[in-house]
């Protein structure tokens, strides 16, 4: 059965196709022009549903303090958070201060961070970052966006991660998951990360920006996958104009859920949690 068929197995007794038809009736139509106010209201609804779906959302890079977070975020480029978290404990013990990074032996550091990939470039960034922090900021990571983006290895995305999670300054993190879901939900057509950040920021309260980023990224990693989203096991189905991109039937959709709360996500979407395979619960969420 195709992803657009009307028959949906929700794990509960229902008339054939009733669940899918109800979702299609409620969700925004591609054929109608959504007003700015309508988009903002839908965005806020998405935000509330994400809050309910992912109460455990958080920065998945293990860290203690701004320096460790800055280092971990630099290492996360083209690498999973899980792999970074496997590398950083030893790295953090070896280099506890900015001065330690500034004076690091290049070969030793390269060997420590090799599993994260692009280790030579990342070593350059970390050593240069330490030097800049020592020379310009007395060894401390600054808490302003304008200062952070001038540091080696730190762009606007990384700066917002640091500000939001180490300094409590609201920021939107436009990574690949965030950008993909903003387009899939049709909350913006912008493709430039900075423009996406501003467009989405205008739809939500500033105080919610940091947690919104975490929840969107959680959803992208656990439910709304790039190639085949779990549409039939997604609590956002009624507000998603891209519903049907992935399977809408409960059984195949449930198999696409990932993470330790995969079965809970299924229940929230009205799907039988037994349809979630055991491997999904322990699977990596890149």
From TrEMBL:
Cofactor binding: number and manner: Binds 1 [4Fe-4S] cluster.
Name of the gene: nth
Recorded family membership: Belongs to the Nth/MutY family.
Cofactor(s) this protein cannot do without: [4Fe-4S] cluster
Signal peptide: none
GO molecular function: 4 iron, 4 sulfur cluster binding; class I DNA-(apurinic or apyrimidinic site) endonuclease activity; DNA binding; DNA N-glycosylase activity; metal ion binding
The HhH-GPD domain, residue ranges: 75-222
Free-text function comment from the UniProt entry: DNA repair enzyme that has both DNA N-glycosylase activity and AP-lyase activity. The DNA N-glycosylase activity releases various damaged pyrimidines from DNA by cleaving the N-glycosidic bond, leaving an AP (apurinic/apyrimidinic) site. The AP-lyase activity cleaves the phosphodiester bond 3' to the AP site by a beta-elimination, leaving a 3'-terminal unsaturated sugar and a product with a terminal 5'-phosphate.
Single GO BP term: base-excision repair, AP site formation
Alphabetical UniProt keywords: 4Fe-4S, DNA damage, DNA repair, DNA-binding, Endonuclease, Glycosidase, Hydrolase, Iron, Iron-sulfur, Lyase, Metal-binding, Nuclease
UniProt cross-references to InterPro entries, sorted A to Z: DNA_glycosylase, Endonuclease-III-like_CS2, Endonuclease3_FeS-loop_motif, Endouclease-III_FeS-bd_BS, HhH-GPD_domain, HhH_base_excis_C, HhH_motif, Nth
Binding positions for [4Fe-4S] cluster per the UniProt entry: 224, 231, 234, 240
Enzyme class: lyase
Known EC number: 4.2.99.18
Name of the protein in question: Endonuclease III
Catalytic activity of the protein: 2'-deoxyribonucleotide-(2'-deoxyribose 5'-phosphate)-2'-deoxyribonucleotide-DNA = a 3'-end 2'-deoxyribonucleotide-(2,3-dehydro-2,3-deoxyribose 5'-phosphate)-DNA + a 5'-end 5'-phospho-2'-deoxyribonucleoside-DNA + H(+)
Coiled coil segments of this chain: none
SMART domains: ENDO3c (SM00478), FES (SM00525)
Keyword DNA damage belongs to the record: yes
Highest rank taxon of the organism: Bacteria
